[in-house]
């Protein structure tokens, strides 16, 4: 018992009390025990909470898995903007738990907070799904609906994040603390299960289902939204079984007020005649009790170590943005299965489930047997180094992709491809631009990807004059071009001169919308199709039908098919690649995912355990809030770098790797001088290491990193 409890006891003993003023208290009715699961110590209400969490995490991670590609291909944002908005959303999801905790602790309580913010969550999914329907309005409406939906989802998921797990802990009686510990393991297993299944299924809903002739983003967002409705309904069904403790006050607000008062009081008493105090927080003694000040002191020691942590999250959370964009330019055909680029994220929760027992039961024990003191702070530092290596590997993969694919034209630059449909060679000269000359062979003998010539412009938009020489024929043409664009100049002939002729062709790719090409000469718009073999595609002309063998259409490539009617030879067809297919398998991303997941297990799980052991019991909720804030700040770092660095992708990966390496060095120095506090000094000698619930923030030793 601490000295403050002794003083309070003495004051109570010596208060003058009249027996006439105290009425006899009627005996309180016995509490009705909650129904149990199969006679165990688990309340039946836990089943509703676990199912709710599974559905909610399915909803969140499923929607987030396809988010970057939605920005890129549906809203047509560039990669930097897509990355920035993705991480702004992620950051907001980790800021709003503070708001949710304040609402639950100070006003509504956990149950009502979960119900009301889940309704906001569902509404956000409705807006997000509507914003992904192509026929509903234009790009501006789609953008507005999407941003409103994401804001509501961030408020919903962040608001209920600190409430659900803690509310589950409230269902257990104190004598069932051991069962409560096992509940948290089941609870976080449901998180990983929801994440694992959703990140595998929603990319399939997006890419394997066609809506209005395009990838079905509306379905990919709608199914997670439906799962959130299920989560809300299931949670509400258990209402009569729940124990619903009333709001107990927000400890986070008390800590902030205590720190603010100490700082302001110190500055008010800066004169030299006032005695100094051992610690700057001692200046709060005039207003706040000593035990609170002592707890805040212990808290600030841990928070100081939190300062370098956001840089780790800046790297970890790029799996859904930059790494997905990288996978989008790789070959997803694994032979037995075609992997969508956004499906690669499924590796993270899958490897987490493998690595946690592997590290706990094998690796850490082997290190311990070698006599190495592998402390928590050392594990976190090694986790940072592994994340650095993961991004170094990602940079190498990016460089290899760039070597195997077509680069993009720069400012005041275009790429020009010439496609010759004539029988012989044609000499093409670009006049007024250094008189660049190209000798182009006939497409009929063309067996490889056409070559793009790099032409520099004098202005952003310029007229190019072409001189075409074919046998004894000489033709001049003029075409306007715009910078940062690739162009294809198609040359064809008739009996007298170089001109164009092409029959009216209707090409049907399975159930997709037909490609209609105009009479004599025409070019269809690009049509998105699923990669794979197309050995017999039906083509219809005015005279007859025929089948065209398109062959293998590689993932993330752009093809041009030329159908020509040659006299006395009938219809002929050629296939060329406008954008070469990447030959680098998406499996090359496996090493970087393995490294970053190992880093996550060593850093995040260990960091939570370390924070738990070093913080006083009354400060657990504040520490959980601070931990979530480091994730939010990490996403802001990615947002800033994506918008203002101006680096090519591989160089940006190297930048993040080097920044984290420097932060790791700083963290190691801070950890070297940190003196750990023994558990008995914080919790008392009888305190057992079991999960604690403070306010509505969950504080526990967890073996999971997805909160």
Automatic annotation (TrEMBL):
GO BP term, pick one: antibacterial innate immune response
GO terms of molecular function: dipeptide transmembrane transporter activity; peptide:proton symporter activity
Transmembrane feature ranges: 58-76, 88-108, 115-137, 143-164, 185-205, 217-237, 298-316, 346-367, 379-397, 625-647, 653-675
GO CC list: apical plasma membrane; phagocytic vesicle membrane
Keyword Transport in record: yes
CDD domains: MFS_SLC15A2
Statement: the UniProt record of this protein carries the keyword Nuclease: no
Reaction(s) catalysed by this chain's protein: carnosine(out) + 2 H(+)(out) = carnosine(in) + 2 H(+)(in); N-acetyl-D-muramoyl-L-alanyl-D-isoglutamine(out) + 3 H(+)(out) = N-acetyl-D-muramoyl-L-alanyl-D-isoglutamine(in) + 3 H(+)(in); glycyl-L-leucine(out) + 2 H(+)(out) = glycyl-L-leucine(in) + 2 H(+)(in); an L-amino acid tripeptide(out) + 2 H(+)(out) = an L-amino acid tripeptide(in) + 2 H(+)(in)
Membrane topology designation: Multi-pass membrane protein
Region (Disordered): 1-36
Main location: membrane
Subcellular location: Apical cell membrane; Cytoplasmic vesicle, Phagosome membrane; Membrane
Keywords from the UniProt entry: Cell membrane, Cytoplasmic vesicle, Glycoprotein, Immunity, Innate immunity, Membrane, Peptide transport, Phosphoprotein, Protein transport, Symport, Transmembrane, Transmembrane helix, Transport
Family listed: Belongs to the major facilitator superfamily. Proton-dependent oligopeptide transporter (POT/PTR) (TC 2.A.17) family.
Entry function: Proton-coupled amino-acid transporter that transports oligopeptides of 2 to 4 amino acids with a preference for dipeptides. Transports neutral and anionic dipeptides with a proton to peptide stoichiometry of 2:1 or 3:1. In kidney, involved in the absorption of circulating di- and tripeptides from the glomerular filtrate. Can also transport beta-lactam antibiotics, such as the aminocephalosporin cefadroxil, and other antiviral and anticancer drugs. Transports the dipeptide-like aminopeptidase inhibitor bestatin. Also able to transport carnosine.
NCBIfam families registered for this protein in UniProt: 2A1704
Quaternary assembly: Interacts (via extracellular domain region) with trypsin.
Protein name in the entry: Solute carrier family 15 member 2
Source species of the chain: Nannospalax galili (Northern Israeli blind subterranean mole rat)
């Amino acid at each position: 018992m601490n000295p403050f409890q002794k003083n309070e006891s003495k004051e109570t003993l010596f208060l003058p009390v009249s027996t006439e003023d105290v009425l006899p208290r009627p005996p309180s009715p016995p509490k009705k025990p909650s129904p149990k699961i199969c006679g165990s110590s688990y309340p039946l209400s836990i089943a509703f909470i676990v199912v709710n969490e599974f559905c909610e995490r399915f909803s969140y991670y499923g929607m987030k898995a396809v988010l970057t590609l939605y920005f890129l291909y549906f809203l047509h944002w560039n990669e930097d903007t897509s990355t920035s908005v993705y991480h702004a959303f992620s950051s907001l999801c980790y800021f709003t738990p503070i708001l949710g905790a304040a609402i639950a602790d100070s006003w509504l309580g956990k149950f009502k907070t979960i119900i009301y913010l889940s309704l906001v969550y569902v509404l956000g999914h409705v807006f997000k799904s509507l914003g992904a329907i192509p026929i509903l309005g234009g790009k501006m409406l789609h953008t507005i609906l999407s941003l409103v939906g994401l804001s509501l989802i961030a408020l919903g998921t962040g608001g209920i994040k600190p409430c659900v797990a803690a509310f589950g802990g409230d269902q257990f009686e104190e004598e069932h603390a051991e069962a409560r510990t096992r509940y948290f393991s089941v609870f976080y297993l449901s998180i990983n299960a929801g994440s694992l299944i959703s990140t595998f299924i929603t990319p399939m809903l997006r890419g394997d289902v066609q809506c209005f002739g395009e990838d079905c983003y509306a379905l990919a967002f709608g199914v997670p939204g439906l799962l959130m409705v299920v989560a809300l309904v299931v949670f509400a069904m258990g209402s009569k079984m729940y124990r619903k403790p009333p709001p107990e006050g927000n400890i986070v607000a008390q800590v902030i007020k205590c720190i603010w008062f100490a700082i302001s009081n110190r500055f008010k008493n800066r004169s030299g005649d006032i005695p100094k105090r051992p610690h700057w927080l001692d200046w709060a003694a005039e207003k706040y009790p000593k035990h609170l000040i002592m707890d805040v002191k212990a808290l600030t020691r841990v928070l100081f170590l939190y300062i370098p942590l956001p840089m780790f999250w800046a790297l970890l959370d790029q799996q859904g943005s930059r790494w997905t964009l990288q996978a989008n330019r790789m070959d997803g055909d694994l032979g037995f299965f075609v992997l969508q680029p956004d499906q690669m994220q499924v590796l993270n929760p899958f490897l987490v489930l493998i690595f946690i027992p592997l590290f706990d039961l094998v690796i850490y024990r082997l290190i311990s047997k070698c006599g190495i003191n592998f402390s928590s702070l050392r594990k976190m530092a090694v986790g940072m180094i592994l994340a650095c290596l993961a991004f170094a590997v990602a940079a190498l993969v990016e460089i290899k992709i760039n070597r195997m694919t077509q680069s993009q034209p720069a400012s005041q630059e275009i790429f020009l491809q010439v496609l010759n449909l004539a029988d012989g060679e044609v000499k093409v000269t670009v006049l007024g631009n250094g008189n660049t000359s190209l000798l182009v062979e006939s497409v009929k003998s063309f067996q490889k990807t056409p070559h793009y010539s790099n032409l520099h412009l004098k202005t952003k938009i310029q007229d190019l004059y072409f001189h075409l020489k074919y046998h004894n024929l000489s033709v001049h043409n003029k075409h306007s071009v715009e910078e940062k664009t690739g162009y294809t100049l198609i040359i064809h002939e008739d009996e007298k001169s170089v001109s164009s002729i092409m029959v009216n062709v209707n090409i049907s790719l399975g159930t997709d919308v037909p490609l209609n090409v105009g009479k004599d000469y025409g070019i269809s718009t690009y049509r998105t199709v699923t990669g794979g073999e197309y050995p017999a595609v039906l083509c219809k002309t005015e005279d007859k039908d025929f089948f065209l063998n398109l062959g293998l259409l590689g993932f993330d490539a752009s093809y041009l098919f030329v159908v020509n009617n040659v006299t006395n030879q009938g219809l002929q067809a050629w296939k060329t690649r406008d954008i070469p297919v990447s030959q680098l398998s998406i499996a090359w991303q496996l090493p970087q995912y393995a490294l970053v997941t190992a880093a996550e297990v060593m850093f995040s799980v260990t960091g939570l355990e370390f924070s738990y052991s070093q913080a006083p019991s009354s400060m657990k909720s504040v520490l959980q809030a601070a931990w979530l804030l480091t994730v939010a700040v990490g996403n802001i770092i990615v947002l800033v770098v994506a918008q203002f660095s101006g680096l090519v992708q591989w160089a940006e990966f190297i930048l993040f790797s080097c920044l984290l390496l420097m932060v790791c060095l700083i963290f190691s120095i801070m950890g070297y001088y940190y003196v750990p506090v023994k558990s008995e000094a914080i919790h008392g000698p009888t305190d057992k290491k079991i999960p604690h619930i403070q306010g509505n923030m969950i504080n526990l030793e967890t073996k999971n990193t997805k909160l």
